[in-house]
Design goal:
With about 180 residues, the protein is mostly helical. The chain has a domain of about 55 residues. Helices cover about 70% and strands about 0% of the residues. The chain contains seven helices and no strands. The longest helix has about 55 residues.
């Protein structure tokens, strides 16, 4: 695949889904990446991966941009990607700090799940949904077990208690 074909697929996938200025900004970024890479166009295309996936990632990033964490995700993704393509002489951040130095507890999935649901990525939403389904299934199983326990143990004990009490009442009346 050539640079033109690759970028054309990305642009086509984004077209109509993002504002044109955002699309142009992203296209410029990837065009510069192709131009500055010492690799051939085919190698860069292979390195970047599926252009549709790149576009979907950009869409997801844009959707989360209005949230508290959206800009952080975009910055981290770009820095991580850029860092993976730098030589060992380069530093990750301008101040020389590593990528993990800036990560806080507030950026964790649990924090975002509780306080900033709009910033969850699609796979995090799927994970949350799956966990919710598992918890619901667990609750249903426990409820079924409680009902079975009630029917098979508690109700017979109550019935036996009343029957024994009634028999003792009859014996007391006969004797007395």
């Amino acid at each position: 695949m050539t640079k033109t074909e690759y970028l054309g697929k990305v642009r086509h996938t984004l077209s109509g889904r993002l504002p044109s200025e955002i699309i142009e900004k992203e296209m410029k970024y990837y065009e510069e990446y192709f131009e500055t890479s010492p690799k051939s166009e085919e190698e860069v295309c292979e390195e970047l991966g599926d252009p549709t996936l790149i576009a979907k990632t950009l869409l997801s990033s844009y959707e989360s941009k209005g949230s508290v964490m959206g800009n952080i995700y975009e910055k981290e993704a770009r820095e991580e990607y850029a860092n993976s393509h730098r030589s060992s002489d380069d530093t990750y951040n301008e101040d020389g700090s590593s990528f993990s130095d800036g990560v806080t507890d507030k950026e964790s999935l649990l924090f975002r799940l509780i306080f900033d649901r709009g910033s969850l990525k699609w796979y995090e939403k799927v994970l949350v949904f799956a966990v919710g389904i598992l918890i619901a299934a667990l609750i249903v199983c426990v409820a079924i077990l409680l009902v079975k326990f009630t029917i098979n143990v508690v109700i017979p004990i109550i019935i036996a208690f009343f029957v024994v009490g009634f028999i003792m009442y009859l014996i007391a009346r006969i004797r007395g």
